[in-house]
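Exercise 7. Given the components listed, write out the predicted structure of the assembled complex. Treat all entries as one system.
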Amino acid sequence: RLLGNLMVTAYGRCGSLDDALDAFNRIDHPNIFSGNALLAAFANNGRLDVARRMLQTMPQRDVVSWTTVVVALAAAGGSYIDEAVALFEAMPERNAVAWNGLISALAENGQVDQAWHIFLRMEEPDIVSWNAMVGGYARNGRIEEAKEIFDRSPAQDVVSWNTIIQGYAQNGLLQQAKELLDRALARDAASWNALIAAYTSSGHMEQAKELFDQMPQPDVVSWTSLLLGYAENGQLQLAERLFGVMPQRDVIAWNAMIAAYASQGKVDTAEAVFHRMPGRSLVSWNAILSGYALHGGDRLNQAKRVFDH
RNA sequence: CACGCUAUUUUGCU
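Answer.
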């Protein structure tokens, strides 16, 4: 059953709802974990109608079930926001994850003021709540308020620091982001990576490389950011070289390389990489197909060939 | 007895 639950989740994560449902039906005596896994599969793949109905009809439901649907509704935005809040208010019990999930989803959707009001209703917001608000304000371009909340939060963990660093970086305030990185009390690879990505995407490859060389332990994210930065800044050969020497490559790194070749019109090389990689995601397909669409000319037909394989 | 399967906050790919 444990394995069955995992399969439901796995299929849900990759959007295969039919397979998720099959996996669920093969579980001997589905428990609430199984039900919640299936519910999440629907909720996280846009089947809000099904998720809503399932929440009412499933044999047992708990705070996880409710939270799954509340967050999915809030993440959908638009008119679903009010419904999410109403459902949240109707929950028989709410734990920290429920509160935090709603706050995060609202803030992600541009409803950061509403998120703040709900935050204020929490008896004891935890560090995730605070971090969610910091990130929410930052993502909505309100970096000063984000910083105020960061400063006012009772404790800061590595995620807090990363969130505020990323906040400055994504608002184009690279200097401030760098200063925060330098004096952060908690840092991990993501702290450096946030800034590296900001540098590469704004064309500051020298600074990106410098940070990469300075950081204690570059991870696959650091390597991929730098690689893609070179590719996008006209240095495809450097990108290739990095790809060749990076310690491990995950599917995102492979996809980045495909996208790099595809965007340069090297569709054959992109296709070779596509075939050579150990596993493909939906993004791999999109990357290779967009290469053909952009540069293939008549080759769009060949794209169909790849697709049919 | 713990731990492991489901919902929440930070960094890279279309």
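Discussion: The mean pLDDT of chain A is 94. Chain A has 20 helices and no strands.
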